[in-house]
Here is the input.
Amino acid sequence: MSDLNTRRSDVASPVSPRGEPLLARLFAFRAPLRQRSRVAISIGSCFFVLAAWQAAASSGLMGPIFLPSPIVVFSTLWRMTLAGQILGNAAISLWRILAAFALSAVMAIPIGMLMASYKPVNAALEPIIDFVRYLPTPALVPLSIIWFGVGEETKIFLLWLGTFFQLVLLVVDDMNRVPQEYVETATTLGASQRAILTDIAWPAMLPSLVDNLRITLGWCWTYLIIAEIVAADSGLGFVIWTARRYMQTDQVMAGVMAIGLIGLASDQALRFLHRKLFSYLH
Amino acid sequence: MNDMTRRYLSFEGVTKSFNDLPVVAPTFDLEIGRGEFVVFLGPSGCGKTTLMRMVGGLETPTGGTIRLDGVPLGKPDKWRGMVFQSYSSFPWLTVEGNIAFGMLYRSELGKAEKLERTQHYMQLVGLSDFAKAYPSRISGGMRQRVAIARTLAAGSEVLLMDEPFGALDAQRREQLQVEMRRIQNADAKTIVFVTHDVEEAVFLADRVIVFSPRPARVTADIDIGAKLGPERTLALRDSAEFFKIKTDLLHLVRASMNAEV
Here is the structure.
Protein backbone atom coordinates (compact mmCIF):
# COMPACT_ATOMS: atom_id res chain seq x y z
CA MET A 1 0.00 0.00 0.00
CA SER A 2 2.71 2.44 1.02
CA ASP A 3 4.69 1.32 -2.00
CA LEU A 4 1.77 2.20 -4.24
CA ASN A 5 1.51 5.65 -2.68
CA THR A 6 5.14 6.46 -3.35
CA ARG A 7 4.80 5.53 -6.97
CA ARG A 8 1.69 7.60 -7.37
CA SER A 9 3.38 10.71 -6.00
CA ASP A 10 6.21 10.15 -8.47
CA VAL A 11 3.78 10.22 -11.36
CA ALA A 12 2.01 13.28 -10.03
CA SER A 13 5.12 15.45 -9.88
CA PRO A 14 7.23 15.70 -13.03
CA VAL A 15 10.05 17.33 -11.03
CA SER A 16 11.93 14.44 -9.51
CA PRO A 17 13.47 14.86 -6.09
CA ARG A 18 17.09 15.87 -5.80
CA GLY A 19 19.65 13.15 -5.71
CA GLU A 20 18.27 11.34 -8.72
CA PRO A 21 20.74 10.85 -11.57
CA LEU A 22 21.04 13.83 -13.92
CA LEU A 23 19.76 11.98 -16.99
CA ALA A 24 16.69 10.69 -15.15
CA ARG A 25 15.93 14.24 -14.05
CA LEU A 26 16.35 15.74 -17.53
CA PHE A 27 14.36 13.04 -19.27
CA ALA A 28 11.41 12.75 -16.89
CA PHE A 29 8.41 12.99 -19.21
CA ARG A 30 7.62 16.68 -19.92
CA ALA A 31 9.88 17.77 -17.11
CA PRO A 32 10.57 21.52 -17.15
CA LEU A 33 14.01 22.65 -18.31
CA ARG A 34 15.79 25.63 -16.82
CA GLN A 35 16.55 28.47 -19.21
CA ARG A 36 20.29 28.14 -18.59
CA SER A 37 20.28 24.42 -19.34
CA ARG A 38 18.16 24.97 -22.44
CA VAL A 39 20.61 27.51 -23.93
CA ALA A 40 23.60 25.35 -23.00
CA ILE A 41 22.09 22.29 -24.72
CA SER A 42 21.17 24.30 -27.85
CA ILE A 43 24.64 25.81 -28.21
CA GLY A 44 26.23 22.47 -27.44
CA SER A 45 24.30 20.68 -30.18
CA CYS A 46 25.29 23.36 -32.73
CA PHE A 47 28.94 22.91 -31.81
CA PHE A 48 28.57 19.15 -31.99
CA VAL A 49 27.29 19.36 -35.58
CA LEU A 50 30.07 21.78 -36.54
CA ALA A 51 32.68 19.56 -34.88
CA ALA A 52 31.37 16.45 -36.64
CA TRP A 53 31.40 18.34 -39.93
CA GLN A 54 34.96 19.57 -39.27
CA ALA A 55 36.10 16.05 -38.36
CA ALA A 56 34.50 14.58 -41.49
CA ALA A 57 36.11 17.25 -43.70
CA SER A 58 39.59 16.93 -42.23
CA SER A 59 39.52 13.11 -42.14
CA GLY A 60 40.66 13.17 -45.76
CA LEU A 61 37.99 10.68 -46.85
CA MET A 62 36.18 13.42 -48.78
CA GLY A 63 37.91 16.04 -50.86
CA PRO A 64 37.34 19.77 -50.27
CA ILE A 65 35.23 19.94 -53.44
CA PHE A 66 32.85 17.37 -52.00
CA LEU A 67 32.81 18.72 -48.43
CA PRO A 68 34.79 21.83 -47.43
CA SER A 69 35.27 22.17 -43.67
CA PRO A 70 33.14 24.64 -41.67
CA ILE A 71 36.23 26.78 -41.03
CA VAL A 72 36.79 27.10 -44.78
CA VAL A 73 33.10 27.83 -45.41
CA PHE A 74 32.88 30.56 -42.79
CA SER A 75 36.14 32.17 -43.86
CA THR A 76 34.91 32.04 -47.46
CA LEU A 77 31.66 33.72 -46.34
CA TRP A 78 33.70 36.42 -44.60
CA ARG A 79 35.98 36.88 -47.63
CA MET A 80 32.98 37.09 -49.98
CA THR A 81 31.32 39.62 -47.69
CA LEU A 82 34.46 41.78 -47.73
CA ALA A 83 34.65 41.43 -51.52
CA GLY A 84 31.07 42.75 -51.74
CA GLN A 85 29.56 39.56 -53.10
CA ILE A 86 27.15 38.95 -50.24
CA LEU A 87 25.50 42.12 -48.95
CA GLY A 88 24.45 43.54 -52.31
CA ASN A 89 23.03 40.22 -53.49
CA ALA A 90 21.39 39.60 -50.14
CA ALA A 91 19.71 43.01 -50.39
CA ILE A 92 18.37 42.18 -53.87
CA SER A 93 17.08 38.81 -52.68
CA LEU A 94 15.54 40.41 -49.65
CA TRP A 95 13.83 43.02 -51.80
CA ARG A 96 12.34 40.31 -54.04
CA ILE A 97 11.09 38.40 -51.05
CA LEU A 98 9.54 41.42 -49.38
CA ALA A 99 7.87 42.56 -52.61
CA ALA A 100 6.38 39.13 -53.33
CA PHE A 101 5.51 38.54 -49.71
CA ALA A 102 3.76 41.89 -49.38
CA LEU A 103 1.78 41.12 -52.54
CA SER A 104 0.79 37.71 -51.15
CA ALA A 105 -0.23 39.14 -47.79
CA VAL A 106 -2.15 42.09 -49.21
CA MET A 107 -4.15 39.69 -51.39
CA ALA A 108 -4.46 36.74 -49.02
CA ILE A 109 -5.63 38.62 -45.93
CA PRO A 110 -8.79 40.23 -47.34
CA ILE A 111 -9.62 37.24 -49.56
CA GLY A 112 -9.13 34.84 -46.64
CA MET A 113 -11.27 37.00 -44.37
CA LEU A 114 -14.06 37.12 -46.96
CA MET A 115 -13.86 33.35 -47.48
CA ALA A 116 -14.21 32.77 -43.75
CA SER A 117 -17.05 35.28 -43.43
CA TYR A 118 -19.23 34.38 -46.40
CA LYS A 119 -19.84 30.78 -47.37
CA PRO A 120 -20.54 31.54 -51.07
CA VAL A 121 -17.10 33.16 -51.45
CA ASN A 122 -15.59 30.11 -49.80
CA ALA A 123 -17.52 27.75 -52.08
CA ALA A 124 -16.34 29.65 -55.15
CA LEU A 125 -12.65 29.93 -54.27
CA GLU A 126 -11.74 26.91 -52.18
CA PRO A 127 -11.57 24.31 -54.97
CA ILE A 128 -9.42 26.59 -57.12
CA ILE A 129 -7.07 27.37 -54.25
CA ASP A 130 -6.81 23.74 -53.22
CA PHE A 131 -5.92 22.79 -56.79
CA VAL A 132 -3.26 25.43 -57.32
CA ARG A 133 -1.84 24.79 -53.86
CA TYR A 134 -0.75 21.34 -54.95
CA LEU A 135 0.87 22.43 -58.19
CA PRO A 136 4.64 22.20 -57.68
CA THR A 137 6.02 25.71 -58.04
CA PRO A 138 9.22 24.59 -59.85
CA ALA A 139 7.06 22.97 -62.51
CA LEU A 140 5.56 26.35 -63.33
CA VAL A 141 8.92 27.99 -63.98
CA PRO A 142 8.79 27.50 -67.79
CA LEU A 143 5.28 28.92 -67.90
CA SER A 144 6.36 31.85 -65.77
CA ILE A 145 9.21 32.62 -68.17
CA ILE A 146 6.83 32.49 -71.14
CA TRP A 147 4.44 34.86 -69.39
CA PHE A 148 6.79 37.25 -67.64
CA GLY A 149 10.19 36.83 -69.35
CA VAL A 150 13.32 36.56 -67.27
CA GLY A 151 13.06 39.85 -65.38
CA GLU A 152 11.98 40.64 -61.85
CA GLU A 153 8.35 39.83 -62.63
CA THR A 154 9.06 36.12 -62.99
CA LYS A 155 10.84 35.93 -59.65
CA ILE A 156 8.09 37.79 -57.85
CA PHE A 157 5.44 35.69 -59.57
CA LEU A 158 7.11 32.43 -58.51
CA LEU A 159 7.49 33.60 -54.90
CA TRP A 160 3.89 34.79 -54.87
CA LEU A 161 2.73 31.49 -56.34
CA GLY A 162 4.53 29.55 -53.64
CA THR A 163 3.06 31.54 -50.76
CA PHE A 164 -0.28 33.13 -51.68
CA PHE A 165 -2.38 29.97 -51.94
CA GLN A 166 -1.00 28.56 -48.70
CA LEU A 167 -1.44 31.85 -46.88
CA VAL A 168 -5.08 32.28 -47.91
CA LEU A 169 -6.01 29.02 -46.24
CA LEU A 170 -4.07 29.97 -43.11
CA VAL A 171 -5.96 33.28 -42.95
CA VAL A 172 -9.29 31.44 -43.34
CA ASP A 173 -8.29 29.18 -40.48
CA ASP A 174 -7.18 32.11 -38.28
CA MET A 175 -10.49 33.82 -38.80
CA ASN A 176 -12.56 30.67 -38.23
CA ARG A 177 -10.89 30.35 -34.87
CA VAL A 178 -12.22 33.72 -33.68
CA PRO A 179 -14.66 32.67 -30.91
CA GLN A 180 -18.32 33.01 -31.85
CA GLU A 181 -18.86 34.59 -28.42
CA TYR A 182 -16.87 37.68 -29.47
CA VAL A 183 -18.99 38.04 -32.59
CA GLU A 184 -22.28 37.60 -30.74
CA THR A 185 -21.26 39.94 -27.93
CA ALA A 186 -20.46 42.65 -30.46
CA THR A 187 -23.68 41.97 -32.37
CA THR A 188 -25.78 42.53 -29.26
CA LEU A 189 -23.87 45.77 -28.67
CA GLY A 190 -24.99 47.04 -32.06
CA ALA A 191 -22.00 46.21 -34.28
CA SER A 192 -22.73 46.06 -38.01
CA GLN A 193 -21.35 43.24 -40.18
CA ARG A 194 -18.57 45.52 -41.29
CA ALA A 195 -17.78 46.57 -37.74
CA ILE A 196 -17.52 42.92 -36.76
CA LEU A 197 -14.84 42.42 -39.41
CA THR A 198 -12.80 45.47 -38.46
CA ASP A 199 -13.40 45.79 -34.70
CA ILE A 200 -13.68 42.13 -33.69
CA ALA A 201 -12.38 39.63 -36.22
CA TRP A 202 -9.29 41.64 -37.16
CA PRO A 203 -7.89 42.31 -33.66
CA ALA A 204 -8.93 38.84 -32.47
CA MET A 205 -7.13 37.01 -35.29
CA LEU A 206 -4.11 39.33 -35.56
CA PRO A 207 -1.76 37.45 -33.19
CA SER A 208 -2.13 34.13 -35.00
CA LEU A 209 -2.08 35.91 -38.36
CA VAL A 210 1.29 37.51 -37.59
CA ASP A 211 2.58 34.10 -36.55
CA ASN A 212 1.45 32.58 -39.84
CA LEU A 213 3.02 35.46 -41.80
CA ARG A 214 6.31 34.68 -40.07
CA ILE A 215 6.09 31.03 -41.11
CA THR A 216 5.13 31.93 -44.69
CA LEU A 217 8.02 34.37 -44.93
CA GLY A 218 10.29 31.42 -44.24
CA TRP A 219 8.89 29.55 -47.24
CA CYS A 220 9.71 32.53 -49.43
CA TRP A 221 13.42 31.78 -49.03
CA THR A 222 12.83 28.26 -50.34
CA TYR A 223 11.18 29.49 -53.51
CA LEU A 224 13.69 32.32 -53.91
CA ILE A 225 16.44 29.88 -54.83
CA ILE A 226 14.23 28.26 -57.47
CA ALA A 227 13.47 31.69 -58.93
CA GLU A 228 17.07 32.89 -58.86
CA ILE A 229 18.60 29.68 -60.17
CA VAL A 230 16.47 29.75 -63.29
CA ALA A 231 16.90 33.24 -64.51
CA ALA A 232 18.91 35.81 -62.64
CA ASP A 233 22.14 37.75 -62.71
CA SER A 234 21.92 38.81 -59.08
CA GLY A 235 20.76 37.60 -55.68
CA LEU A 236 21.99 34.91 -53.30
CA GLY A 237 20.50 32.14 -55.41
CA PHE A 238 22.52 33.42 -58.37
CA VAL A 239 25.70 33.49 -56.23
CA ILE A 240 25.16 29.87 -55.21
CA TRP A 241 24.37 28.70 -58.73
CA THR A 242 27.37 30.48 -60.25
CA ALA A 243 29.73 29.02 -57.64
CA ARG A 244 28.37 25.56 -58.39
CA ARG A 245 29.21 25.98 -62.06
CA TYR A 246 32.90 26.46 -61.14
CA MET A 247 32.75 23.68 -58.52
CA GLN A 248 33.53 26.20 -55.77
CA THR A 249 31.79 24.16 -53.11
CA ASP A 250 32.99 26.45 -50.31
CA GLN A 251 31.24 29.37 -51.99
CA VAL A 252 28.07 27.34 -52.56
CA MET A 253 27.98 26.48 -48.89
CA ALA A 254 28.82 30.05 -47.86
CA GLY A 255 25.82 31.27 -49.86
CA VAL A 256 23.59 28.67 -48.24
CA MET A 257 24.92 29.72 -44.82
CA ALA A 258 24.15 33.35 -45.59
CA ILE A 259 20.52 32.47 -46.37
CA GLY A 260 20.25 30.38 -43.23
CA LEU A 261 21.61 33.21 -41.07
CA ILE A 262 19.30 35.82 -42.63
CA GLY A 263 16.33 33.47 -42.17
CA LEU A 264 17.21 32.82 -38.55
CA ALA A 265 17.67 36.54 -37.84
CA SER A 266 14.39 37.59 -39.48
CA ASP A 267 12.51 34.81 -37.72
CA GLN A 268 13.86 35.86 -34.33
CA ALA A 269 13.09 39.51 -35.10
CA LEU A 270 9.46 38.66 -35.94
CA ARG A 271 9.14 36.52 -32.81
CA PHE A 272 10.42 39.45 -30.77
CA LEU A 273 7.97 41.79 -32.51
CA HIS A 274 5.14 39.34 -31.78
CA ARG A 275 5.97 39.31 -28.08
CA LYS A 276 6.05 43.14 -28.03
CA LEU A 277 2.89 43.71 -30.08
CA PHE A 278 0.80 41.10 -28.32
CA SER A 279 2.16 41.41 -24.80
CA TYR A 280 -1.46 41.49 -23.61
CA LEU A 281 -1.74 37.78 -24.37
CA HIS A 282 0.96 36.76 -21.94
CA MET B 1 -39.58 50.09 -8.41
CA ASN B 2 -40.11 46.70 -10.04
CA ASP B 3 -43.30 46.50 -12.00
CA MET B 4 -43.92 42.78 -11.93
CA THR B 5 -47.51 43.00 -13.04
CA ARG B 6 -46.71 44.44 -16.41
CA ARG B 7 -45.96 42.31 -19.39
CA TYR B 8 -42.55 43.55 -20.35
CA LEU B 9 -40.87 40.59 -22.00
CA SER B 10 -43.27 37.99 -23.32
CA PHE B 11 -43.04 34.72 -25.24
CA GLU B 12 -46.27 34.27 -27.17
CA GLY B 13 -46.89 30.84 -28.69
CA VAL B 14 -43.21 30.44 -29.47
CA THR B 15 -42.08 27.29 -31.24
CA LYS B 16 -38.54 26.36 -32.15
CA SER B 17 -37.07 23.34 -33.83
CA PHE B 18 -33.66 22.38 -35.19
CA ASN B 19 -33.80 19.99 -38.13
CA ASP B 20 -37.51 19.31 -37.41
CA LEU B 21 -36.70 18.30 -33.83
CA PRO B 22 -38.58 20.52 -31.37
CA VAL B 23 -36.55 22.44 -28.79
CA VAL B 24 -39.61 23.79 -27.00
CA ALA B 25 -42.87 21.87 -26.70
CA PRO B 26 -45.42 22.28 -28.04
CA THR B 27 -45.69 26.05 -27.89
CA PHE B 28 -44.08 28.25 -25.32
CA ASP B 29 -45.70 31.10 -23.36
CA LEU B 30 -44.07 33.13 -20.62
CA GLU B 31 -44.35 36.66 -19.29
CA ILE B 32 -41.58 38.49 -17.52
CA GLY B 33 -42.04 41.82 -15.70
CA ARG B 34 -39.79 44.85 -16.02
CA GLY B 35 -36.91 44.73 -13.56
CA GLU B 36 -37.40 41.06 -12.73
CA PHE B 37 -34.40 38.84 -12.13
CA VAL B 38 -35.56 35.60 -13.72
CA VAL B 39 -33.52 32.42 -13.58
CA PHE B 40 -34.08 29.67 -16.15
CA LEU B 41 -33.23 26.45 -14.34
CA GLY B 42 -33.02 23.15 -16.12
CA PRO B 43 -30.74 20.31 -17.19
CA SER B 44 -28.06 20.89 -19.82
CA GLY B 45 -29.40 20.81 -23.35
CA CYS B 46 -33.04 21.28 -22.30
CA GLY B 47 -33.51 24.30 -24.56
CA LYS B 48 -33.33 27.07 -21.95
CA THR B 49 -30.31 28.63 -23.59
CA THR B 50 -32.05 28.57 -26.98
CA LEU B 51 -35.02 30.42 -25.46
CA MET B 52 -32.66 33.04 -24.08
CA ARG B 53 -30.78 33.36 -27.36
CA MET B 54 -34.08 33.97 -29.14
CA VAL B 55 -34.64 36.93 -26.80
CA GLY B 56 -31.21 38.21 -27.75
CA GLY B 57 -32.02 37.89 -31.46
CA LEU B 58 -29.22 35.36 -31.97
CA GLU B 59 -31.77 32.66 -32.89
CA THR B 60 -35.06 33.09 -34.70
CA PRO B 61 -38.22 31.39 -33.40
CA THR B 62 -39.71 28.88 -35.84
CA GLY B 63 -43.14 30.23 -34.92
CA GLY B 64 -44.77 32.69 -32.54
CA THR B 65 -43.54 36.03 -31.28
CA ILE B 66 -41.32 37.38 -28.55
CA ARG B 67 -42.20 40.95 -27.52
CA LEU B 68 -40.27 43.50 -25.53
CA ASP B 69 -42.49 46.28 -24.23
CA GLY B 70 -45.08 45.31 -26.84
CA VAL B 71 -42.67 45.42 -29.78
CA PRO B 72 -41.91 42.14 -31.60
CA LEU B 73 -38.21 41.33 -31.39
CA GLY B 74 -36.00 40.90 -34.42
CA LYS B 75 -32.28 41.30 -34.97
CA PRO B 76 -29.96 41.91 -32.02
CA ASP B 77 -29.80 45.47 -30.70
CA LYS B 78 -28.33 47.38 -27.81
CA TRP B 79 -31.44 46.89 -25.63
CA ARG B 80 -30.62 43.25 -25.13
CA GLY B 81 -27.07 42.44 -24.02
CA MET B 82 -25.48 39.00 -23.67
CA VAL B 83 -22.94 37.81 -21.12
CA PHE B 84 -21.34 34.47 -21.98
CA GLN B 85 -19.62 31.90 -19.83
CA SER B 86 -16.30 32.11 -21.66
CA TYR B 87 -14.60 34.52 -24.07
CA SER B 88 -16.71 37.22 -22.45
CA SER B 89 -14.10 39.98 -22.52
CA PHE B 90 -11.93 40.99 -25.46
CA PRO B 91 -8.27 40.14 -24.73
CA TRP B 92 -6.85 42.97 -26.85
CA LEU B 93 -8.62 45.69 -24.86
CA THR B 94 -7.97 46.84 -21.30
CA VAL B 95 -10.70 46.65 -18.64
CA GLU B 96 -11.55 50.26 -19.42
CA GLY B 97 -11.46 49.63 -23.17
CA ASN B 98 -13.72 46.60 -22.83
CA ILE B 99 -16.33 48.55 -20.89
CA ALA B 100 -16.15 51.51 -23.29
CA PHE B 101 -16.62 49.05 -26.18
CA GLY B 102 -20.23 48.70 -25.01
CA MET B 103 -20.88 52.25 -26.25
CA LEU B 104 -18.76 52.11 -29.40
CA TYR B 105 -21.80 52.02 -31.69
CA ARG B 106 -23.85 54.57 -29.80
CA SER B 107 -23.04 57.70 -31.74
CA GLU B 108 -25.71 59.69 -29.95
CA LEU B 109 -23.60 59.66 -26.78
CA GLY B 110 -20.95 62.37 -26.46
CA LYS B 111 -17.32 61.56 -25.71
CA ALA B 112 -17.55 63.01 -22.20
CA GLU B 113 -20.67 61.03 -21.45
CA LYS B 114 -19.09 57.79 -22.68
CA LEU B 115 -16.08 58.42 -20.46
CA GLU B 116 -18.29 59.15 -17.49
CA ARG B 117 -20.42 56.04 -18.01
CA THR B 118 -17.30 53.90 -18.38
CA GLN B 119 -15.98 55.17 -15.04
CA HIS B 120 -19.38 54.77 -13.41
CA TYR B 121 -19.88 51.14 -14.39
CA MET B 122 -16.26 50.26 -13.77
CA GLN B 123 -16.76 51.48 -10.23
CA LEU B 124 -20.10 49.70 -9.89
CA VAL B 125 -18.46 46.33 -10.55
CA GLY B 126 -15.44 47.23 -8.40
CA LEU B 127 -12.77 47.33 -11.10
CA SER B 128 -11.60 50.96 -10.99
CA ASP B 129 -8.17 49.88 -9.74
CA PHE B 130 -7.76 47.62 -12.77
CA ALA B 131 -8.74 50.13 -15.46
CA LYS B 132 -5.53 49.68 -17.47
CA ALA B 133 -5.15 45.92 -16.95
CA TYR B 134 -5.65 43.45 -19.80
CA PRO B 135 -8.01 40.49 -19.26
CA SER B 136 -5.11 38.01 -19.21
CA ARG B 137 -3.82 39.70 -16.05
CA ILE B 138 -7.04 39.54 -14.02
CA SER B 139 -9.04 36.64 -12.58
CA GLY B 140 -11.88 34.85 -14.33
CA GLY B 141 -14.35 36.46 -11.95
CA MET B 142 -13.07 39.92 -12.81
CA ARG B 143 -13.38 39.15 -16.50
CA GLN B 144 -17.06 38.31 -15.98
CA ARG B 145 -17.53 41.61 -14.12
CA VAL B 146 -15.97 43.39 -17.08
CA ALA B 147 -18.56 41.78 -19.36
CA ILE B 148 -21.42 42.72 -17.02
CA ALA B 149 -20.20 46.33 -16.78
CA ARG B 150 -19.85 46.53 -20.56
CA THR B 151 -23.43 45.37 -21.08
CA LEU B 152 -24.73 47.83 -18.48
CA ALA B 153 -22.68 50.67 -19.98
CA ALA B 154 -24.19 49.89 -23.36
CA GLY B 155 -27.55 50.80 -21.84
CA SER B 156 -29.08 47.34 -22.25
CA GLU B 157 -32.44 47.05 -20.54
CA VAL B 158 -32.45 43.27 -20.72
CA LEU B 159 -29.40 41.28 -19.62
CA LEU B 160 -29.15 37.77 -20.99
CA MET B 161 -26.66 35.73 -19.02
CA ASP B 162 -25.70 32.25 -20.21
CA GLU B 163 -24.22 30.44 -17.19
CA PRO B 164 -21.92 33.42 -16.71
CA PHE B 165 -20.32 32.04 -13.54
CA GLY B 166 -20.12 28.45 -14.76
CA ALA B 167 -16.35 28.45 -15.29
CA LEU B 168 -15.46 30.03 -11.93
CA ASP B 169 -14.30 28.28 -8.78
CA ALA B 170 -16.82 27.97 -5.93
CA GLN B 171 -15.44 30.90 -3.91
CA ARG B 172 -15.35 33.40 -6.78
CA ARG B 173 -18.73 32.21 -7.91
CA GLU B 174 -20.28 32.92 -4.51
CA GLN B 175 -18.63 36.33 -4.38
CA LEU B 176 -19.87 37.24 -7.83
CA GLN B 177 -23.42 36.12 -7.06
CA VAL B 178 -23.49 38.60 -4.15
CA GLU B 179 -22.06 41.26 -6.48
CA MET B 180 -24.63 40.47 -9.17
CA ARG B 181 -27.50 40.92 -6.76
CA ARG B 182 -26.00 44.15 -5.41
CA ILE B 183 -25.61 45.49 -8.96
CA GLN B 184 -29.18 44.50 -9.76
CA ASN B 185 -30.49 46.27 -6.68
CA ALA B 186 -28.49 49.40 -7.57
CA ASP B 187 -29.33 49.48 -11.28
CA ALA B 188 -32.48 47.45 -11.89
CA LYS B 189 -32.51 45.63 -15.23
CA THR B 190 -34.60 42.80 -16.50
CA ILE B 191 -32.34 39.79 -16.25
CA VAL B 192 -32.72 36.35 -17.79
CA PHE B 193 -30.08 34.16 -16.20
CA VAL B 194 -29.54 30.60 -17.38
CA THR B 195 -28.07 28.01 -15.00
CA HIS B 196 -28.36 24.40 -13.92
CA ASP B 197 -27.20 25.19 -10.36
CA VAL B 198 -30.15 25.11 -7.95
CA GLU B 199 -28.40 27.04 -5.17
CA GLU B 200 -27.32 29.76 -7.59
CA ALA B 201 -30.88 30.02 -8.85
CA VAL B 202 -32.36 30.49 -5.36
CA PHE B 203 -29.71 32.97 -4.30
CA LEU B 204 -30.03 35.22 -7.34
CA ALA B 205 -33.61 35.03 -8.53
CA ASP B 206 -36.75 37.02 -7.97
CA ARG B 207 -38.35 34.20 -9.87
CA VAL B 208 -37.18 30.75 -10.94
CA ILE B 209 -38.58 29.01 -13.99
CA VAL B 210 -37.93 25.26 -13.89
CA PHE B 211 -37.66 23.47 -17.23
CA SER B 212 -38.20 19.85 -18.20
CA PRO B 213 -35.57 18.07 -20.30
CA ARG B 214 -35.75 18.86 -24.01
CA PRO B 215 -38.15 19.80 -25.51
CA ALA B 216 -38.35 22.58 -22.91
CA ARG B 217 -41.57 22.97 -20.97
CA VAL B 218 -42.13 25.03 -17.82
CA THR B 219 -42.65 22.59 -14.95
CA ALA B 220 -42.61 25.17 -12.14
CA ASP B 221 -42.64 28.96 -11.78
CA ILE B 222 -41.55 29.99 -8.29
CA ASP B 223 -41.65 33.44 -6.75
CA ILE B 224 -38.44 33.54 -4.69
CA GLY B 225 -38.59 37.33 -4.28
CA ALA B 226 -41.74 37.05 -2.16
CA LYS B 227 -39.90 34.77 0.25
CA LEU B 228 -36.40 36.19 0.38
CA GLY B 229 -36.80 39.85 -0.62
CA PRO B 230 -34.30 41.78 -2.76
CA GLU B 231 -31.37 41.87 -0.31
CA ARG B 232 -29.16 38.80 -0.69
CA THR B 233 -26.08 38.45 1.48
CA LEU B 234 -23.70 35.58 2.16
CA ALA B 235 -25.35 35.11 5.56
CA LEU B 236 -28.61 34.32 3.80
CA ARG B 237 -27.08 31.10 2.50
CA ASP B 238 -26.79 29.76 6.04
CA SER B 239 -30.39 30.55 6.98
CA ALA B 240 -32.94 27.80 7.50
CA GLU B 241 -35.33 29.52 5.11
CA PHE B 242 -32.81 29.54 2.28
CA PHE B 243 -32.05 25.90 2.91
CA LYS B 244 -35.72 24.98 2.81
CA ILE B 245 -36.40 26.81 -0.44
CA LYS B 246 -33.33 25.24 -1.99
CA THR B 247 -34.33 21.73 -0.89
CA ASP B 248 -37.89 22.15 -2.15
CA LEU B 249 -36.61 23.43 -5.47
CA LEU B 250 -34.16 20.57 -5.74
CA HIS B 251 -37.04 18.12 -5.34
CA LEU B 252 -39.01 19.95 -7.98
CA VAL B 253 -36.09 19.78 -10.38
CA ARG B 254 -35.68 16.06 -9.74
CA ALA B 255 -39.37 15.49 -10.34
CA SER B 256 -39.27 17.52 -13.56
CA MET B 257 -36.37 15.42 -14.84
CA ASN B 258 -38.74 12.44 -14.92
CA ALA B 259 -41.77 14.37 -16.14
CA GLU B 260 -43.18 12.98 -19.36
CA VAL B 261 -44.04 15.56 -21.98
In short: The mean pLDDT of chain B is 90. The radius of gyration of chain B is 18 Å. Residues 240-258 of chain B form the longest helix (19 residues).
